[in-house]
Records
---
Amino acid sequence: MAEQRLSPHSRRREAGHRLSVLVPRPFTGPLDYKFDTPLAPGTVVRVPLGRQEIVGCVWEAEPTHLPVDLRPPRSSRHVAFSSLRAIISVETHIPALPETLRHFIDWVAAYGLSAPGMVLAIALRVPAQGGGMKPMLGWARKAGPLPESLRLTPARNAVLAALAAHGPASTAALSAQSGASAAVIRGLAHAGVLEESVLEGSPMSATPPEPDYAPPTLSAEQAEAAHALIEAVEERAFNVTLLEGVTGSGKTEVYFEAVAAALRHGRQVLVLVPEIALTTQWTERFAKRFGTIPAIWHSDLGQKARRETWRAVADGQQRVVVGARSALFLPFAALGLVVVDEEHESTYKQEEGVLYHGRDMAIVRARLAGAAAILVSATPSMETLVNVQKGRFRHEVLESRHGPACMPEISLIDMRDHGPERGLFLSPLLCESIEDGMKAGEQSMLFLNRRGYAPLTLCRACGHRIQCPHCAAWMVEHRRRRILACHHCDYTQPLMKACPACEAEDSLVPIGPGIERIHEEVQARFPEARLLVMASDTLTSPAAMEEAVRKIAQKEVDLIIGTQIVAKGWHFPDLTLVGVVDADLGLGGGDLRAAERTMQLLHQVAGRAGRGSKPGRVMLQSYVGDHPVMQALIENDFIRFMEQEAAQRRPGFWPPYGRLAAVIVSAPKETHAEALARHLALNGPHGEGMEILGPAPAPLALLRGRYRFRLLLRTRRDIALQPVLRHWLAGVTCKNDARIDVDVDPVSFM
Ligand SMILES: Nc1ncnc2c1ncn2[C@@H]1O[C@H](COP(=O)(O)OP(=O)(O)OP(=O)(O)O)[C@@H](O)[C@H]1O
Ligand SMILES: [Zn+2]
């Protein structure tokens, strides 16, 4: 209203410039501010918001760079210039966000129907938190010989080697370079080996990776694939290649050649890995090939290390980053290559806060930067295979393992005929094989994707099952920590003696195995064996992981018992037997990709066996041996399996043949959630090629004290979901603390 009363004359008299600023808050778009001088988009500024001062970024007023379908509706709010608040200051110590990153942020927001400000928050989390660039303190090697009494562990050696190679460095940089923890570095300082020193220039000033430091001799098959990848990078334009190769075929070595090509052209490289734990071994291999350590990026990294990396990536100094999906939001100055290792992994999906699929967004990131993308897998996702079939992605294949190694032999143990005694979980057949392996001095691994001791605690007297008070989920017993824990929220309670329902004493029994229970069984069966348990809650730091890997590599371990953390990427040459305790575990539930995912996980875990000179064996314990997943695994026929899967998804337009979005309605009261879900269904979009499924109570019908209902919107591929969803949800108001969450391309169906 005020706007209309302003005459053109009075508007001209106003001094200053109108600028759009995106702030890290859940608004639909940027807000307008004024400032004395014009500022380029990307400039990081401090602005007033309500009574607060916050850091935001000068932004394009309209997202015209987005495809029309993805553009959010134009904001109708227009504030008169005279009422605009002024930008307080320019944050000169933070580099401007590059255009490719800003456009990427808009893309992620628009695709997933998230507030752009909340996506910006991911990108600004690091630089906006720290102060300016103070003189940096770091560590240098103290002059003189090493003290006699010094115990030289591998981690300490790595620190000394990093210092010798790169000179003085901050704790974080040193830790990144050496893979050793801060505690190791402090320990060396304490022992009088290191001293504090002021660092000059950028704290990350590591020697840049050398593309020709130590190239491997590639096999003919590898060389051919590497050549294609190098060419893809040298086009200096967006393209995507699937690098498919059996486990142990040297996919990493091959895509390292593409990394080298990008480095030769002065461009930056981002490598995404699905599991932080994997960065340790990856980093070592990288160092062997390129003579230096890459930057590592994930949320467990210290604030300081992250700040340094952020800057070094922005000014182009840091050439290679390996990390988790959040590394996509780093301000790369000249991105030339994005690699997504184990592209089929569902862990690439961010399931909380701003939802996005790391693999899909990596492709968007590459496109916006004009970079090449390489997707790497032994068992590519159906989505990626369809893109290859349609000619959108290129395809390179490695068919055999590198060197003398051959593919492991996979066999099935039918638990209906060869099950163990009551209360035990390992078939006598599997135990015999473990024993044989031990006699031969070889290593074995037992895989069970379940942490803790037992997934369910039951009262023998009254049948009561102990459930989380906040979630529709059983409490999982963790015997070592003496607690019951909910794996969906943070709730824990001490182990109890009496049943909480009938108060019977000593009537509670654990049902089913977790890896702690398998550990117990193995200990009883093989008291001499040297065991190692690997799970996310036993290996909580990179240092612990590193120590575990060292033990295995130096053959201080006979048998590894692990969750999915052991399934991926590891290369242990002396590991010859893999036993899958419960191959059927992932098959239950109404998940669209349950079979595909189980296949991929088991194939990958099987791929850990026999990677050295000795042949490998894999034994799958299953009650459903005829299941297509088990058959595909023992026949090693991944192609046929995926064809069968495709045949099931194609007719109903299930992804990737159609599009899918989940709408999750939740509220503290069940009736409120249900009523809103029904209202949504009644007022949902309809028309040719689109359909609403549900509402139905979510499989996890109660989560953190909120009742949940799910709807699915399914459309044909040629219909964009976002405008439909936006239109549908725009008319709905949430009362009673109800909430609507949208998940475009859902991976989890809980
Ligand atoms: N050309 C080569 N020269 C020397 N070593 C090689 C070569 N190719 C592969 N290797 C070695 O073979 C092993 C397996 O390779 P790599 O880990 O890259 O396989 P992968 O295909 O990534 O396997 P996975 O899918 O199981 O992770 C590694 O130790 C690697 O260093
Ligand atoms: Zn819970």
Note: The pocket of zinc ion (ligand 2) is lined by residues 468, 470-471, 473, 486, 488-489, 491 (CB under 6 Å).
---
Amino acid sequence: MEYLKAIFTLNVAANDEQAAKDLLADLAAAAGFEAFEESEEGLTGYVQPHLLDKETLDEAIANFPIVSARIEYEMEEAENRNWNEEWEANGFEPICIENKCVIYDARHYSPEDLPANMSLQVAIEPRQAFGTGTHETTRMVVQQLLNLQLAGKHLLDCGCGTGILGIVAAKLGAESVLGYDIDEWSVDNSLHNATLNGVENMVVVKGDATALNAEKKYFDVVVANINRNILLADLPLWVEKTTPKGTIVLSGFYQTDTPILVEAAKTLGLALTSQKELDGWACLTFGKQ
Ligand SMILES: C[S@@+](CC[C@H](N)C(=O)[O-])C[C@H]1O[C@@H](n2cnc3c(N)ncnc32)[C@H](O)[C@@H]1O
């Protein structure tokens, strides 16, 4: 796989540098960047060409309050690498959500190591894919799923990453799950994690929202944790594929973008039913009329 490389330049006082780097890494993640490295050239970010959301990045940088940052868009190809390699080798700490659900790395923990009071255990082995619950956006969507009645429902998981959201839904009783992701590794990893959790009613396909044009089925619940511009572009199709009175949960964007998403949803006939924010990230739940 090929990566584009971008050099970021931060103009901040030395004692603000770490906070600025953390914030910039978050902003760039929202624009599709997978990894940051400190190199001799500076702070270097890598993104798969088709996942770069340049508009989100430009806008975030323009609104960056404490620092001016410059990105050189003369990007180079970078070698194929597994950015998560080191992190995957060490695993991630179990993550508890709402005292109900624990997400754990099955390569490093076994069910007996987990807190006893969690009614839902979800094993995830991330391989080159996003979605462990360590990120605020994933956690907020899982929280929403825990509060929905999913028994017997059909769920669509857009940009499924590790498959975590579909797997949680299936374990909460969803009758079927269709996941899709533009990234092949994510498709493979979702299928692997579904098997790991004994989930048999989850289908995962490679592609973007256009794959839904051929889909005959309608969904009671649609979840999408991607980024603002993809959410805005694909929302009309998701609404079309949602049953009347169905639910759409969106995350992957900053709370400052909430008004734009709420407005877009309203024009498509959706009503906002719940709103969450965590460390600057947002999650919105809508009901179809
Ligand atoms: C932020 S991750 C979310 C993963 C997981 N659903 C979660 O909530 O943790 C976004 C995922 O969307 C995928 N993606 C990005 N653009 C996409 C698009 N246009 N259509 C489908 N998937 C896309 C990425 O490959 C990535 O796996």
Note: The domain at 136-288 is CATH 3.40.50.150 (Rossmann fold).
